[in-house]
Amino acid sequence: MSLAEIAERNRYRARDADLLASGWTPSPADLADAPFIDKWEETTYPGTDLPSLKGYVTGHPRLGSTFAWTSPLIARGDGWVRTEGRFYRLGTQYVPEPVPPAPPAPPAAPYTPPMDEEADAILDSLPWYGEPR
């Protein structure tokens, strides 16, 4: 992004943060061109403790349609979020399928030490066992 694009993005973010703080919420018309994020899950933005979303995005102006991680969230409402970069329309939240519990391990067989002959056979199979190197 160019410095001009970053400055414009910061102006829009500040404007929207002020509007949202005053009680304004975006209408469906305001969100009509916003990217759509589906199968999203809440996470933190990499390297920070700031909340963000990751999921399958369609209609993103730079990324197109792909799996993406949003910039940090600054506001959320019913069916939408405002990130530092833009508004997103929300689809369904990702819910992982439950993982069935692992079956219990079979009981361990009691330990029985090897017979002398078994130990000798194992040691004899090792290369150079008992020979000087």
Short summary of the structure?
This protein is α+β, with helices and mostly antiparallel strands and 133 residues long.
Overall description:
It is a single chain. With 133 residues, this protein is an alpha+beta fold. A hairpin with a 3-residue loop joins β2 (51-60) and β3. The N and C termini lie far apart (66 Å). It has three helices and six strands. A six-stranded mixed beta sheet has the order 3-2-1-6-5-4, covered by helices on one side. It is elongated and about 85 Å long. The longest helix has 19 residues, at 3-21.
Question: H/E element string?
Answer: HHEEEEEEH
How large, in whole angstroms, is the Cα Rg? 29 Å
Shape: elongated
Strand content: 25-35%
Give average pLDDT, whole number.
89
Spatially, the strands of the biggest sheet line up as: 3-2-1-6-5-4
Helicity range of the residues? 10-25%
> Distance between termini?
66 Å
Kindly state the number of beta strands: 6
Uncertain segments? none
Query: Which secondary-structure class do the elements indicate?
Result: alpha+beta
Number of helices: 3
Secondary structure layout:
Elements: H1 3-21, H2 28-31, E1 36-44, E2 51-60, E3 64-69, E4 73-77, E5 80-83, E6 87-90, H3 116-124
Parallel strand pairs: 1-6
Antiparallel strand pairs: 1-2, 2-3, 4-5, 5-6
